[in-house]
User: Fold these one by one.
Assistant:
Number 1:
Amino acid sequence: MDKTNANLLFEKIQKFDNIIISKHKTPDWDALGSAEGLRNIISDNFKNKNIFVVGATLDGTGLIDDEKLTPEIIKAALLITVDTANIERLDFENFGDVKESFRIDHHINNTPYTDFEYIFSDAIACTQVITLWANEMQLKISKTAAEYLYRGLLTDSNRFAYRNTDERTFEAAKILTRCGINVAEITQDIYKRTLRQAQWSTEAFGRIVIDAETKFAYIIADYKDIKKYNLTNDEFKSALGAMGNIIEIDVWALIYELTETSGIKVSLRSKKIDINKIAMKYGGGGHLLASGGYLDSWDDLDAFLLDVKNYLKGEK
Ligand SMILES: [Mn+2]
């Protein structure tokens, strides 16, 4: 499918005047970098395209191009979704009104939700898929596009450290570096922290509960924590990454609510054991080692924790 769909993606972009790029809710750098990187690649290489990146900004305070859309534009548009495993995660309500849809992704392919797909489920980042596609299609990648794409590559691979970081990852990094990006500056910009964030991290670590038998650890947080420390979603979720290099922990979770009404989200991470199965059981999904799901209320917490522990016992 790969070669054919690479060409098909090119042809669809060529054919449509209106292109909407949508990513997942509460976007991270891979989602936003994919969307903005692709926007730049399309506008630099194809003439007369109206391109709209929709959904929340990275800091969650607003929407990107949503206000520029009209029903007429949507009806005539090609929708390209990036970095989004399923329709529930898609940050675009008018999904059903577009003319055609194409999914570019690196998530495990659960239920197809678009007309066409370009998916490499073992790619470390969606921006890797886009970078290698653009290169294969001999498209120009501007410095601006490369900066966006590199941000996704760096963060989804955790600075080239996670499994699935492979030769294609470094190939993509090489392509992007050749576009003139400043690797040191981007890295510094992404991993800088405020004192508030460091303080939240310390508090979060103080709350860790570890089940010694299964090496499962979790942190519980609610919207009051976000308010108290005045954090963005990304800053808040950084407590999750911080658990990843602790010897006593194999599988870990951040169980949290972003706002009073957002509902309870579970973000699961694992060093080796497939935790995607658990996440799917709780209405979510993602990757084998990084996935997430939802709880209906805090009353379901104990049952969820027990479920995870029982599952991990079975896997050991
Ligand atoms: Mn991603």
Note: The beta strands are 18-22, 50-54, 78-82, 100-105, 116-119, 209-211, 216-221, 251-256, 264-270, 290-295.
Number 2:
Amino acid sequence: MVCSQRVSVVKKYNIRHHGETHHAEKYRGLYGQPRREKVKELIAGLKKQQSVFTSRPDISAADVKASYLIANDIALASKPYCECEIVKTCILKAAEIVCSES
Ligand SMILES: [Zn+2]
């Protein structure tokens, strides 16, 4: 699909009908190489949108270590996040670990 609109039933006829009624004017003049380039551009746009849901940020060992140490500190302190001092201590500890290993 060239747009984000969904058709009720994904069948060849429905998709063709949607394209002919909604997008025919826009892409009618495209033939040959310009048409192939437009298709590549649309596919690239779609893949970029999908990558938002599939790509994960790289998680380093330092991040994991900091996460576990902070979880340990919070559990030992038995205090909620709204306690200012525990948050400050955790952030300082995380910064120390992450910054020293990267
Ligand atoms: Zn459409």
Note: The chain has a mean pLDDT of 83.
